[in-house]
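Researcher: Next sequence.
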Amino acid sequence: MIPMSPLTSPEQFAQMVAERLRQRIASAHVEYGASRFELFVKGDRGQLIGKVFLGNFYREFLESDLHGQELIMLRACQVIEAPDLAGIDFESRLFPQIKDRWSIEKARLSSVHMPYVELSEHAALLLAYDLPERISYVGSEQLENWQLSFDMALHNASANLYSRTTFDFEQVFDENTGALLFAVSPWRDHYDCGRFVFASEILKLPVQGEHVVFLISPSYMFITGSKSDRGLLFALSELRANKADPHALPPFPVLLNRDGYRPFEISPDNSLHHLFEEAQAAYLKGVYADQRQCLFGQFNRLVPGLYICQYDVVPDGYRVGVRTSAVIDQRRLPCLVPQVSQVHFRAGEGPASSASFAAFLSVMADAIQTTDLYPALYRLNRFPSTHELGQMSYLSGELG
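Model: Next structure:
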């Protein structure tokens, strides 16, 4: 094996990745294309299965330590997870799947792009293919290799899942009124939530109010009505019970009707509102912490020299609920600010002022840049003036 070194040439790097591909996929034939710095992966009949474009991986490789270099080569191999190496027709193995956005984002940061449809800010519908021992996700390069558009692949995937589905939801009714409290998916085959694409079947359930869908884990979809407090309470209980599941999906329900879908927000007047807020804030705190660690660590090249403010969850003593916050320090600018309910400004050793996030975005618009990072981070280029701090304080009262 060629020793890893900062002086590794492109040809040596291609050879190292090729060796790992052959180890992972015994029947694969790997050829090097020097003109575009890529590897061609072929099956045992000589058919082209996929390509690995090495440019981005090689640049990361040169900037990493030994441990990081090994991980980069493994990621390069994961771009090709060829489902037809054993004679499997990949189109018959495609299925729709729901995944958390942060997992998709981490893959994107590693130069693996998976096309998807956003269901909420934090969950997305994408494509998976089912192999005997694992489920893998479909990237843009794989679709290009298969000569399929995302829409066509999703159509095929949905047809595959529909053909193996009988829509007999498990339903629980109120013992006094006979009304449907909630329904749960019965299949438990890792594609329960993927069946969200069959909206017309979900809409047949006689819920109270509009249909609220909780995508709890890939194998667990929970449906209740927007006017069923008992159903929503059961949903909250199930979210809590499944929180520790490594495959748990973000606790952000979706409101489904015949016009489409949108994020569901329980009314602030509902006694359950703050409980859902707590679950969602706790989830985002974990995701923001993971993002912060990644951007300070292996993906530091994307935010060089920028300080990333921490996302905090603070119990609110003035109302029932939670408040999320971030501290902007005058000594740590420019910085990246998470999307929170309140920002605090610190000048020197003590706090200077506080403002709602809406007021912060409005008053500081000329000093704020949006980024393409998920979860949302906003780049602040300068500290607010005394006048701007006063404006934000005034606006915060008007905007609540």
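Model: The CA atoms of residues 198 and 239 lie 22 Å apart. The chain is about 30% helix and 25% strand.
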